[in-house]
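QUALITY CONTROL LOG
STEP: pairwise intake check
CHECKER ROLE: data steward
CRITERIA: each record must contain a sequence immediately followed by its structure tokens, with no blank fields

ENTRY 1 OF 2
RESULT FIELD BELOW
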Amino acid sequence: MRGIRGGLLACLTALLAVAFTVVSPPSDAEAFPARTRQDVLTYLRSITGTSVVSGQHNKEPASQPGQYTQQVRDITGQYPGLWGGDLMFNPQDVANRQRIVDQAKTEWANGSLVSLTWHVCPPTTGSGCAFEGGVKSRIGADQFRQVVTDGTALNAAWKRRLDEAVPYLRQLRDAGVPVLFRPLHEMNESWNWWGAHPGQDGGARLFRITRDHLTAQGLDNLIWVWNVQDNPAGDWASYYPGDAYVDVVSLDVWYKAHPSQADYQQIQSIANGKPIAIGEMGKVPTAALLDSQPRWAWFMIWSEQLRGDNSNAEIQAAYFHPRVLNQGEVGPVNSGGGGTDPGTGTGTGAIRGLAGKCVDARASGTADGTPVQLYTCATGVAQTWTVGADGTIRNPHAGRCLDAVGAGTANGTLVQLWDCNGSGAQQWQYVASSGALRNPQSGRCLDVTGNSSADSTRLQLWDCTGAANQRWTLPV
């Protein structure tokens, strides 16, 4: 568990010099409404093979649950699309778990997915413990057998330990925050007390007991992430608790900088169609990795390894890769059951895009020819749009429609406000799989010029690429 123990880039750097002063999380708390675990799972399946969510873990202390995601912001001008936290182990942090929950709510509201792991103390000790000799320890084989045997004292102790987390996880459930929950991680490793117990009566059984017990407490917001480390000894499948108990299959990459193709294939074989993810890594993914292993749903950089293992240029390159989704670019869909699907239905409100910023009528203009641009989200008429069932996108304040200048169809055609006239220049189709707004007349997509997240960047038509500067979240 290494985290606990220890030409183009020039252009990007120029862009970041501007972005540092203007990029901020959404100003309201409506980037993500309440969602279910199934919504997030459906979303992860929908991006598999096309996009990957950026992630950053935040380790102790619990009093600073966003310290490493802030470092990402300092380096890239953007926040990760996935916030990682930990329920933690030492007594001071255990007593401060509310800070973790509060941060998770904030991250979700600002437009990031939420992940929690738990470096849990063994059931043979108290609720709090040291890492060395506590989390990082071994219990006897007979003791482990008791932990996974119903009716024993240690089995009861384990369930009481799980109950300590229930009030915090219920807060997230009640707030409509699904949690990518990764307990008992790296169970094929021997550094932790729960690890290196292969077979269905070993770590796999402990995982099943854990899920059954927490599910019985009404925690239907948990997305169960099973995890192993890239130990070359292999046989990862011997720790797998079964398809009924796992929602996402994940790999921690510490024996090497990046997962090998053999690692990638082995994880996919175990997952059997479920989403897969990189649960922990020290080196940010390169373009070559993302191109050759496109099915990872997210990657998670471990806390201090962000700066310890990577240069600023490497971090920037990863976060600005066209397939990488950062905060404000992630959009879980509704999987059914009566809700409206944000981004696919009609509605009135803000249209969010690159870096969590909004489609904006410049200076709240109402005249024909008013430029349409990207701008920091704020409540107001300039960023209020009605997405119509007829394919138009209308600014109610101006009474005018989103329009391709001069009915142009070429790359670089700018977008403006114009009297609504039903022409092809004012028709837009939302592509749910990519988040794109496509103009059928031109066959091109609504695009943020130059992939720049700076305020006042004009919007244009450009060949549809699926890149972050062409992904939009529509109002409900």
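ENTRY 2 OF 2
RESULT FIELD BELOW
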Amino acid sequence: IHPADMAELGIENGDHIELESDVGKITAIAEADETMRPGVISIPHGFGPATGEMDEDGGVSIGALIVADEFYQRVNAIPRMTAIPVNVRRLSSRIIGHQTAEVE
């Protein structure tokens, strides 16, 4: 996430965040990246459980945010996995080292 977006949302590196699309939610760990375009969030697809929850290594799948049978490429049936509008909110926990800690 671009650092300016994180500051605007009150998010710090290591904070757990929730991303919600029109069809589902996922939990992820925020990390600042100045090379990101403001207003854009990048999450590698294919890591973590399909439920949208993080695995023990912090991996998460964006599958819970997409609709596979509505927005897809007609030529090969691959669902849209990019440019998905999401709402972002900070959750009340963060990763410190490899441990989860509750924050206010």
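INTAKE CHECK: passed for both entries
DESCRIPTIVE NOTE, ENTRY 2: Helices lie at 3-9.
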